[in-house]
Amino acid sequence: MLRAENLTKRFGSLDVVSNASFAVRAGAVTGFLGPNGAGKTTTLRLFLELIHPTSGSALVDGRPLHEWPAPGRKVGAVLDGHCAHPGRRAIDSVRWAARLAGAGADAEELLGRVGLAEAAGRRTGAFSRGMLQRLALAIALAGDPEIVILDEPMNGLDAEGIAWIKTVLRDLRDEGRTVFIASRLLAELEDLVDDLVVIAQGNVVGSGSAGAFVDRFQPQAVSVLSDQPQALGIAVSRAGGQILDTNGQRVLISGLTSTQLDEIARDAGIALFGVTEESGPRSALSPDLSPAVGPDLSPDLSPDLSPDLSPDLSPDLSPDLSPAVGPDAHPPIADVAGIVGEVC
Ligand SMILES: Nc1ncnc2c1ncn2[C@@H]1O[C@H](COP(=O)(O)OP(=O)(O)OP(=O)(O)O)[C@@H](O)[C@H]1O
């Protein structure tokens, strides 16, 4: 498993990751959710030892990654950043990664797994961003790793590509691997992940069961306008919903989603207008989503969390391509470099 213990990374005077403590369960898919600039990529780079912590530790099965005899067999990663060599053929990039990781992966099979069988012999300079994401995943899997770390792997993929990668990641879990996936979008993760770690402004503000978290931020009530409020009330009660309040034509309902309400009203021949989902409480994480930093959980962060997570953490989808450079950046250690499938 992955474990961050009081992990801090400072760039200049800014704590980009601040005293973060959390664990990623072995054999599960864990989402790493946070808005732009929250510190997700920095945390992933710390686990990969592409940069060093200011204090604390980022451990892979209890040790820093480089202490494992074959780091590339332990962890495979897909990060945004540098290009795969544009002049190299896709199959050669995967073979090279497998060699570096010390694994005898079948590069053709891996490219088939990521849907690039037809493009295996092509140079990657002409690949689309979506194809590069697929290639990066093949490179990350070239070491047959126990743990797969991915930084926003759905960027650049269309709806079909997103559905595809979710299937691949579920398959990786079913093979017994641990998957840790960073994203700004709860919607991208919610039908994929078992657990969530939530980060905001460098602080890990919660971690735990994804189901508990998603339930917490589901709409708590639906407000509708209807010219048949009584008939609507009867239909809602029959369907297991509750009428919280009726004020003239406005009816406030809990226990049903707006989609369910639409169906119920349609079946009962009742017209609905002005359907509005009322969000759940903003102030706290679910009790099941245990504060990962215990008493250090800043009360200032929780109220800010909910709106940021609904449902797109950031309207800005353009990836931050800036690699970790600067005085604090540390060049990849040779053994680890081969495990990172990076994307143009
Ligand atoms: N090498 C660096 N030197 C200085 N600041 C950095 C460096 N790397 C990252 N940062 C800053 O740290 C903050 C967190 O960046 P990081 O990329 O980890 O966030 P993120 O959660 O992955 O965001 P995004 O979703 O936009 O990629 C940002 O303000 C970023 O500008």
Work out the count of structural domains.
2
How many strands, which pairing sense, and closed or not: the largest β-sheet? 7 strands, mixed
Oligomer: single chain
Determine the N-to-C terminus distance.
29 Å
Radius of gyration: 23 Å
Query: Using DSSP, what is the number of strands?
Result: 14
Q: Give the strand line-up of the largest sheet.
A: 9-8-3-7-6-5-14
* N-to-C SSE string, H for helix and E for strand: EEEHEHEHHHEHEHEEHEHEEHEHHE
Q: Which ions and ligands are bound to the chains?
A: adenosine-5'-triphosphate
The proportion of residues forming helix, as a percent range, comes to 25-40%
In terms of structural class, how would the helical and strand content be classed?
A: alpha/beta
Number of helices: 12
At the fold tier of CATH, the topology name of the largest domain is Rossmann fold
Judging from the principal axes of the Cα atoms, what is the shape? globular
CATH superfamily of the largest domain: P-loop containing nucleotide triphosphate hydrolases
The CATH architecture term of the largest domain is 3-Layer(aba) Sandwich
Strand content: 25-35%
Q: Determine and state the CATH class of the largest domain.
A: Alpha Beta
Domain ABC transporter: 2-226
GO molecular function, one term: ATP binding
Region (Disordered): 280-330
Keywords: ATP-binding, Nucleotide-binding, Transport
